[in-house]
Automatic annotation (TrEMBL):
<protein>
    <recommendedName>
        <fullName>Thioredoxin domain-containing protein</fullName>
    </recommendedName>
</protein>
<dbReference type="InterPro" id="IPR013766">
    <property type="entry name" value="Thioredoxin_domain"/>
</dbReference>
<keyword id="KW-0813">Transport</keyword>
<dbReference type="Pfam" id="PF00085">
    <property type="entry name" value="Thioredoxin"/>
</dbReference>
<dbReference type="InterPro" id="IPR036249">
    <property type="entry name" value="Thioredoxin-like_sf"/>
</dbReference>
<feature type="domain" description="Thioredoxin">
    <location>
        <begin position="32"/>
        <end position="178"/>
    </location>
</feature>
<keyword id="KW-1015">Disulfide bond</keyword>
<keyword id="KW-0249">Electron transport</keyword>
<keyword id="KW-0676">Redox-active center</keyword>
Length: 213
């Protein structure tokens, strides 16, 4: 089974800087050079450089590409002001906590890009946990693994998903979108409430208990 999340303790290096600096540098092996090397053939000036087969991360997470609602948070101050604005102005939002070194984050990235384009009215704030000055804030928000997704509706955190769970993310985004349209409170992840049949059964048992005693 593939890994779905990365624990934050992996942020610390496994090898100390002192031991890394004392390690021997690899030796270089020089190839023999011909006495009269022939000049390399020149490419025609009209030849265009080949384009990369896959989009770069900066293009993938660009908030201006193809109507996507993805917004890359560039600093700890920007993150604090964005979170405050979402809470004060009672806005819907998704905060996506990730890291460059996290494999599950890279695996789920195409789906996040797709969902941010599918629901352009819900901003998705991509937050790199390695940004300077963000450690204390992450502790306050109880972000201990990546990827982690926090869902906000009317300025309040209404749900959380930890790990690269594609099915849960799709359901959570659709629920938040529908709740934004209807004005109801969504339940995107976290502890689930009792289903309607269970609630009806509880009411029936409570009424029976009241009549008996």
């Amino acid at each position: 089974m593939a890994r779905r999340l990365c624990r934050l303790p992996r942020l610390f290096p496994l090898v100390s800087p002192a031991s890394a600096s004392t390690s021997a540098a690899p030796k270089l092996h020089h190839l023999p050079v011909a006495a009269n090397p022939s000049p390399a053939p020149r490419l025609p000036s009209s030849a265009a450089s080949p384009s990369p087969a896959f989009p770069t991360l900066s293009r993938l997470f660009s908030s201006s590409a193809g109507g996507s609602s993805m917004v890359v948070v560039g600093s700890a101050d920007s993150f604090s002001s964005t979170l405050k604005k979402v809470q004060d102005e009672k806005l819907p939002a998704v905060f996506y906590y990730t890291a460059v070194w996290c494999g599950p984050c890279r695996a789920i990235a195409p789906l996040i890009s797709k969902l941010s384009s599918q629901y352009p009215s819900i901003p998705v704030y991509k937050v790199d946990i390695d940004m300077e000055g963000l450690v204390n804030k992450l502790g306050d928000l109880k972000v201990f693994s990546v990827p982690t997704f926090h869902f906000y509706h009317k300025g309040q955190k209404t749900g959380e998903i930890v790990g690269a769970d594609a099915k849960k993310l799709e359901v959570a985004m659709e629920t938040l979108h529908n709740s934004k349209k209807s004005g109801e409170e969504p339940h995107t992840g976290g502890p689930s409430l009792l289903c309607l049949p269970c609630m009806s059964l509880c009411r029936t048992l409570l009424a029976w208990y009241t009549l008996m005693f």
